[in-house]
Amino acid sequence: MPGRWRAAARNACVIAWAALSAGPAPAAELDYRLQPRQVAEGVYVFEGANDDFSTRNGCNIINTGFIVTGAGVVVINTGPSRLYGEQQRAAIRRVTAEPVVRVLNLNLHPDYLFGNQAYRDVPISALPGTIRDMRAEAPGFLDNLYRICGDWMKGTEFVPAAVPAETGELRVGERVLRLQRLEGHTNDDLIVMDARSGVLFAGGLVFHTRIPTTPHARIGPWIEALDRLRQTSFSVLVPSHGHLAADASGIDQTRDYLAWLDSTLDAAARQGRDLNEVLALPMPARFRNFAAREPEYVRNVTHLYGPYERRALEGR
Questions:
Q1: For the chain, which residues score pLDDT lower than 50?
Q2: Which domains does the chain show, CATH number per domain?
Q3: How are strands ordered across the β-sheet holding 189-194?
Q4: pLDDT tens digits along 274-287
């Protein structure tokens, strides 16, 4: 049993992004129809589908954004494909004549960075651990998205972030962006606060009305990060997945789900339940309408259950 889970852990980064394709790519032109939503003066968000990867949505399930600073545009996450990055950049040009001067990738997951290809001429930053991990894992992610997303991925290549992001204040033009490193969803989770507007880009730490993804998750540190976010004052919270909100509902939902998942897996392991038995356990009603519930819960258990079993076998 433990050997099986070790193998599963080695493959978790690929398993995490396995999803059922919804059929062939659309016959019509491949258009993400990106519409910038202004959430504050100079701050915009492109909202992705609150769903799982599929050809139906072009694998666009992420909220990306940009901030117009008066001295150039800062882009936050670049989407799942070359095409997304190109269409994102074109949509930004329709809003402002200011050039893009910086790109920030908030973590290593594929929908945060495969649009980097459209910004080869711009400094692309991420936390040092994210740069290390994306270089190690992005090729596997890319292969998997080609299988899932089909034609939406044509011509997509991996362009890694190359400029280590420094935490603290990043001053660009008239804006001050506060960059903070947390962890738990991945080893390095970058969050960005626009000081002027109070808009907080919380990355993959927050999932609003969506089951979290967990290929690199450590639940304890993740809950600690959410507790820190809960003490942060903001005007709008932009999760990478799910609905934007002017309150902490997304933080609370994510913490509630992770705490339930932790206690459920711990109890199941102590009871000697196998994987299929865990997957058959009932989910509380408050989570049942969350997006991507069925595929993500299966992946949650697959990614995370092995260490709980080992601890139970060792009597810890």
A1: 1-27
A2: 2-20+37-313 (3.60.15.10)
A3: 168-172, 175-182, 189-194, 199-208, 236-242
A4: 999 999 999 999 99
